[in-house]
Amino acid sequence: MTSSRHYLSVTVLAVAGLGAAATGAEDVPTGDAARGARIGYTCLGCHGIPDYRNAYPGYHVPKLGGQHYAYLVAALGEYRAGARPHPTMKGQTTSLTEQGLRDLAAYFATSEPVRSGAAANESAPKAAEACAACHGSDGVGLLPEFPTLSGQHADYIEQALRAYRSGARQHPVMNAMAAPLKDADIDALADYFAAQSPSLRTAPLPARPQAR
Question: pTM for the whole thing?
Answer without folding.
Answer: 0.84
